[in-house]
Design a protein that fits this description.
The protein is an alpha+beta fold. It has one domain (22-207): Glucose Permease (Domain IIA), CATH 2.70.70. The protein is built from six helices and 13 strands. Strands 1, 4, 6, 7, 8, 10, 12 and 13 form an eight-stranded antiparallel sheet that branches. Strands 5-11-9 form a three-stranded antiparallel sheet, with no helix packed on it. The protein is globular, with a radius of gyration of 20 Å. The chain starts with a helix and ends with a helix.
Length: 214
């Protein structure tokens, strides 16, 4: 009788044990094959907004949809938003293009459908490296290893109608400015605390304010 009770308890544990999301450390190797470890061919000295707007040096030309560091429970409970979600305040048309913010190299294109992502690696004047990451893309126009500058259209965003297919609000740009890319992309959705957030990410609005100078 005791054996039957123990077996039943084991089955209960297997089928009803609490779900634990993957961690950055144990999930990052899955995304490593999508990363190209090649240095940019030019220094990123001049930065721009990622949209074709009247003045790509003016932060007032963007509309913020969701802020950096916000708590998100829609995918994994406890996740912290690693980006700023944004749109151009006055889009030129129905199809919104996404442009590189500075000179760099496309080092990663990963995920698919409503999570399609392009990452550009930038070399700064002081020798440091940063990464700009562009997510929620409908179409991608660049390839891994491609050298880009601020005039290169990387992709385009979803329209409102296209976004409805996925049952969510995906017609915006999820823009990350990263200090490092050792997670190969998975920290975008597996960041669960402030330490993880500050280890890999800058606040994009602060970065834009400090670097988009005429």
């Amino acid at each position: 009788m005791l054996a039957k009770v123990l077996s039943f308890n084991v089955l209960l544990f297997l089928f009803f044990k609490p779900f634990s999301p993957p961690t950055i450390e144990n999930d990052k190797d899955r995304w490593k094959p999508y990363y190209i470890n090649t240095a940019p061919g030019a220094t990123a000295e001049n930065w721009f907004l990622p949209f074709k707007v009247a003045n790509r040096k003016d932060p007032r030309q963007i509309r913020v949809v969701s802020i950096f560091g916000d708590h998100r429970d829609s995918f994994y409970k406890g996740h912290i938003h690693t980006a700023v979600d944004m749109n151009p305040s006055k889009p030129e048309g129905k199809l919104v293009g996404v442009y590189a913010m500075a000179k760099g190299i496309v080092c990663s294109i990963h995920l698919g459908e409503n999570q399609k992502t392009v990452v550009v690696r930038h070399q700064l004047k002081d020798g440091n490296t940063v990464f700009s990451s562009y997510k929620h893309l409908k179409e991608v126009y660049v390839s891994p290893g491609q050298q880009v500058n601020e005039n290169v259209k990387l992709a385009r965003l979803f329209t409102v109608q296209e976004s409805k297919k996925y049952g969510g609000d995906y017609h915006h740009l999820h823009l990350e400015i990263r200090k490092r890319f050792d997670d190969y992309g998975c920290a975008s959705w597996l960041t669960m605390n402030k330490e993880q957030l500050n280890l890999r990410f800058y606040n994009p609005l602060v970065f834009i304010k400090e670097n988009l100078k005429p």
